[in-house]
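Input record (one chain):
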Amino acid sequence: MTMLAKETIRLNVNVKDKYEAIRFAGQLLVDAGHVPAEYIDKMIEREEALSTYIGGGLAMPHGTNDSKAMIRSTGLAILVVPDGVEFGGDEPARLIIGLAAVGDDHLNILTNVAMLVSEEEDMERIMNASTEEELISIFAEGMQG
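The corresponding structure, as predicted from the sequence alone:
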């Protein structure tokens, strides 16, 4: 099982609010076998405690610290939301990455993803990706460094 797969990517998503976005991303992680369904509640709980909006149009919802034991394997669920969704930041989130990470993987992944999307041209490539495969290759390229 890989961290990122076609099955955990959705392009051109419309969601009414950040909670729908979190549930959507969480369900993709559940369906891929990374986490049990209860993890979605922990993602919501985490969001209510502190926004997972990072900046630059990126939000990375993930579970609370006490949900770590639930995680079966490290995985990402990516939603591309062209119209954006309000996450409580200075601009709407257009890229939502649900994260479930085993052990200390999450810090490494957060850092790599933040670096990748901080490059405006990379963020544009992500937002304009026309296939799941294209998105996977952008992330694979960006997360090697």
